[in-house]
Design goal:
CATH topology of the largest domain: Tetrahydropterin Synthase, Chain A
Order of helices and strands: HEEEHHHE
Number of strands: 4
Number of helices: 4
Distance between the termini: 104 Å
Helix content: 40-55%
CATH class of the largest domain: Alpha Beta
Shape: elongated
Oligomer: single chain
CATH architecture of the largest domain: 2-Layer Sandwich
Largest sheet: 4 strands, antiparallel
Strand content: 15-25%
CATH superfamily of the largest domain: Band 7 domain
């Protein structure tokens, strides 16, 4: 009889411990209903507009002669029609800034690396566009193609 009471007591303690662990971890039948607050979705029209640029031709000099010509096709990304008009107004300034910077940057890039890294050029052009046009006017600079034409 003592053994039966001892087994019954241990069984009650084991069940009590199991229930308390399930309650503490919120598992099984004690899993509470989660209250999910639905936030109203803000309907923001994310418009993406592209502005085409003429291809940039960058001569790379080696000594006194042209070693290669790099041709880069670029598109500028903005988010409103007003920005497109503003970019088109200052397009000669942007193009001039791109060519001037890449004219000095391209030989250093080719000296450090054997091939032209599109990601580095994209980041460089984004920095230049932020300086020239102001931060936020041009959201992104897409480098569509880079053609290296050796002479």
């Amino acid at each position: 009889m003592k053994k039966l009471l001892l087994i019954f007591g241990l069984l009650v303690m084991l069940c009590g411990g199991t229930v308390s662990v399930l309650k503490f971890l919120k598992l099984g039948p004690f899993q509470g209903e989660e209250v999910v607050e639905e936030k109203p979705e803000e309907q923001v029209e994310a418009t993406i507009l592209f502005v085409d640029m003429e291809p940039l031709a960058i001569p790379v000099f080696q000594g006194n002669r042209v070693a290669a010509t790099v041709q880069i096709e670029v598109k500028l990304v903005t988010n409103s029609k007003d920005n497109v008009e503003r970019i088109k107004q200052i397009m000669p300034i942007i193009t001039n800034a791109f060519v001037r910077d890449l004219h000095s940057f391209m030989p250093r890039l080719l000296k450090a690396e054997e091939r032209i890294d599109v990601l580095i050029i994209k980041q460089r052009l984004q920095l230049i566009s932020n300086k020239v046009a102001g931060k936020g006017l041009i959201k992104n600079v897409l480098v569509q193609s880079v053609i290296d034409q050796p002479r």
